[in-house]
């Protein structure tokens, strides 16, 4: 095989040609390019370039087309004749061969997760086979890719739930900083996976149950945290109480509330617990509910009869609908919307564009499907921030 390992303009030119060929293996015409003689400043460099093209042509890897008449001493164009031979001539395996080798190595890790992790590996392999990066990882970054798939496989096994990022990273990869290195690509993959491409990272981490550190759950209602030496937290405290998720095993429901009401935004939660006295249990979700909020609500809903109304009050917009749907999908029973209606949005909200990304919720059995359908495909769409409304007793706010 011709030794072409010395890096220079000719080698770089052939590498670009090979990459162009590999990126579109089904192209009808072979990849080709014209030399950039302006970058060859000396006669020696031009001669070296010509020698390299001639060597590649003798290897049957490329076809060299020379100029005519007064340009007969210059190369007009170089075409790839055989991409595999060109790769051998350059002393490296083809992109498909490299991609397959890396896939075989990574499959041992991906296979420890749910099936969708291996499916993602296949998708990335197809891009590597075309000399493309996948989620900003190339086939040449096998160690980084293995770390990435260890994190994904662990997440798919629900092993991130309830942990902070550093603890999870250590358990999944034996490196506390691995999660931080891959956070943006993890968010990109998982956002698509949960049907929220482009969602904020905090939304993604909440969905998989990952928390930098667990936040206390703010609430007001007839619950208490009891210890052997007395009551630690009384949920009836004014204006509200805060219960850390680590206390939930000691939580008990003292009496039946009139309603369970979850509230998305902090200002509305504060107004509700200060202005409305109706015996409801009011829980602040903080946007997408963290693992502690879901755990507390699950325990309360399981403890109470099914005829205790469960309502949720959030923004009438894409995020608000997605939060509502998240509660439906992650709790023993789903809520009904409170102050989340089309008439209220039209009256007190702001004009907005329809967003078809809510189509799947609109076509589901969700209690908020009609609102999702209007926000997805309706006319005169309006978004409503819940702070624009005054709090109301749940019995008057049910849609």
Task: Write a brief caption for the model.
This protein has 399 residues and is α+β, with helices and mostly antiparallel strands. It is built from 16 helices and 14 strands.
Protein model, in words:
With 399 residues, the protein is α+β, with helices and mostly antiparallel strands. 44% of the residues lie in helices and 13% in strands. The chain has helices at 9-23, 43-58, 83-89, 95-110, 115-128, 142-156, 165-173, 178-193, 201-207, 266-275, 291-303, 318-330, 342-348, 359-362, 369-377, 394-397, and strands at 32-33, 62-66, 75-80, 217-220, 223-227, 230-234, 241-243, 251-253, 260-263, 281-284, 310-313, 336-337, 350-351, 382-383. The chain has a six-stranded mixed β-sheet with strand order 7-4-10-9-11-12, sandwiched between helices. Helix 4 (95-110) runs antiparallel to helix 5 (115-128), helix 4 runs parallel beside helix 6 (142-156) and helix 6 (142-156) packs across helix 8 (178-193). The longest helix is centred in the N-terminal third of the chain and has 16 residues, at 43-58. It starts with 8 loop residues before the first helix and ends with a helix.
Question: What topology emerges from the helices and strands here?
Answer:
Layout: H1 9-23, E1 32-33, H2 43-58, E2 62-66, E3 75-80, H3 83-89, H4 95-110, H5 115-128, H6 142-156, H7 165-173, H8 178-193, H9 201-207, E4 217-220, E5 223-227, E6 230-234, E7 241-243, E8 251-253, E9 260-263, H10 266-275, E10 281-284, H11 291-303, E11 310-313, H12 318-330, E12 336-337, H13 342-348, E13 350-351, H14 359-362, H15 369-377, E14 382-383, H16 394-397
Parallel strand pairs: 9-10, 9-11, 11-12
Antiparallel strand pairs: 1-3, 2-3, 4-7, 4-10, 5-6, 5-8, 13-14
Helix pairs in contact: 1-2, 4-5, 4-6, 6-8
